[in-house]
């Protein structure tokens, strides 16, 4: 090589053990046959190790975190203000005014805080969006119809033995809830018109108490590799949950769904821990409040069968059904006609008075505008329920997170297809999907005779979505050129528990695939310096990978520097991120001269060795680098890591890109071989040994491990 690459030969020469030097003259393509080169000291594998999410990886993203936090609170303030201006419901107007101010102050606190996503802004938001409007509404006496219905039902239950009006004539006479909901109206019936008797206070108390207890149960269920430090404590998770608009609004105005959701979450947490009686009691309590809680029964029992065995699931099922029957059956028998009118016909839109749940979702539209549409909607609802039930039998959830995801899916389908529905029900899947990802949810090991051993819950957070993503990427790589073929070959060279680096991650295609292949005991670090792709990468990592992967906004090269210039080409006014490159050491634009324009963002550059030391990585097993010709510079900055760990390398090698840094593909391959690496190419479904780089292919695998031809 010439120019910038002339220092690489001494680097790779230092990597070669004595045995490899002799082997170079006899078998260049198979210089080293062992998994780790002889004479190379590698760090021992630590079973179950996952890189901590709080590792001090440069650069600091506090400024970015503060901006995102400020933006989130500002968006919440805008939502609250719009609701205040548009709604005609008085309690919602009060909430919108108070919450808009609270979220606005929270945005200011977030902007001034030294640490992003801290408790201060969440506490301010919770006070403004929950405490202030709740106290005001209780003192003022203004309440929405649901609160009035529940408080009246408590009095009716004491007076007549049934919470239902015998002959409902108008909307306010109807009570679509199961008898257990009337318990929240008993304080008003017993204590009279005092603030402490307000049903909204008891809704909030039960909701927050059950959610907090669920978080405590999850925290004690088992170790979580993502840590359970202060940032993930149950109290802080509960604070953030209460501050979100989807939860703060019903907490303040008295939404009846939050206690139901909270008991569902508690039931899943107890089932995930393997406690049949406690889980059965929570399941039965939720089922006695509202029909929307009944789908939690099969999901919770399926989870319990995995964590504690089938007998425990049967015990929990008997406990849950017994409690629900004791709560519902006496009331149903007291006045069967009123029970059917209020609890069965009215929620389906078939009562004497039309249901106010008329959001334009598929079930409502079918029942309203299509002849025979009610029957079609009910049939679709039944088919959806059968499909979800079938999935529970074929692939039962093995963790609390997986069970919550399955339940959220089932409820989402039901809420779309039920003939009388409303958008407010979206709080069910939102809380179920989010809560167990906020709390450090572990799980108990299965008992003897139970189901198969499973991993801790935080490792399973990413399981199904990540598996689907990986399967889709592999399928696309076999049929379309826009997903690289080598994605399908990663499973042959990356092992369970491997630590991988994705350098030049762009939108994260390789990061997601490596996260799946390396499994929950592995870890992937993706590096992308450009802000646009980095935002996509970060969002994808959080959504799909759980604690398996981490995204870092930086470039990697041969030496660290705080400010380096990149050339980002533009075509037809749009950035071509995949062709961006570092300008330092480059002899011009090279093949990027085909683009009419460019921009020059400033980025931070680190080295592989710097990252490994800062993160405390015990080893690196796999490195993928696609940096538009700067691959030799990345390897130069990884000298210590290459010497210590001998990782497998997947490099993009194109002569046209290397040339702009004064390098040549032939010399790079020669030096890697001299270091004991063999070169392979993914072709026809397998890694095949090759001896040279061609223009027909651009990605080449280098490894010291033996691979089958």
Automatic annotation (TrEMBL):
Q: Which UniProt keywords apply?
A: Cell membrane, Membrane, Signal, Transferase, Transmembrane, Transmembrane helix
Membrane topology field? Multi-pass membrane protein
Signal sequence, start to end: 1-22
Specify the superkingdom: Bacteria
Gene3D superfamilies tied to this protein: Vaccinia Virus protein VP39
Q: Which InterPro entries match?
A: FkbM_mtfrase, GT87, SAM-dependent_MTase, SAM-dependent_MTases_sf
**Gene Ontology MF annotations:** hexosyltransferase activity
Q: Where in the cell is it found?
A: Cell membrane
Q: Where are the transmembrane segments?
A: 70-88, 94-113, 120-139, 201-218, 238-271, 291-309, 316-334, 364-388, 409-436
Major subcellular site: membrane
A GO CC term attached to the entry: plasma membrane
**Residues covered by the Methyltransferase FkbM domain:** 502-678
For this chain, the family text in UniProt reads:
Belongs to the glycosyltransferase 87 family.
* Protein name (Swiss-Prot/TrEMBL): Methyltransferase FkbM domain-containing protein
Lineage, please?
Bacteria, Bacillati, Actinomycetota, Actinomycetes, Kitasatosporales
